[in-house]
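So, can you check this one?
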Amino acid sequence: MMRGALTLILGLLVTHANAGAGMKSANKYPKKIWWVTVAAVVGATLLDARSSWGKPELNPLLRGPNARFGGTGLAVKIGAVGGSCTLQWLALRKHPELASRFSGINGGLTSLFAGVAWRNEIQSQALRQRTARLLHPDGQLQQPLFLIRPPDELHASR
């Protein structure tokens, strides 16, 4: 699921980049392209939130009461992206010529959020692999060797 969503977002970015490179059809529909980039940035934000859900959060603005990403962080992320898109929409009502610039900003945000989601997924997979190596085939956690030896042997080896 994650790869398909990332492929979709990257496809939208490539389409947007090609449209901004001077294609005539892009000049006719700048506001429609802006709407596509809004959908892409919202999708990338949701992917980032999904990949962070329940994991320790370093950003104090996104931390919940247990120092993990949860509903509080999701509300802040959605509020920030929604507020940004709303401000862009209000500005576009008076100045439609800004659509291509706002599309570029949204494309950059989409790349950022999709990259963070990808990084989170890679870290989660690595953690699952490390945890799987610590487990016996029956699913019980192995104890590290320094916990198996008696404490007096630990001090004698120093």
In short: The first helix runs from residue 2 to 20. Helices lie at 2-20, 24-28, 30-52, 71-94, 99-134, 145-148, 151-156. The two ends are 51 Å apart (CA to CA). Residues 21-26 have pLDDT under 50 and may be disordered.
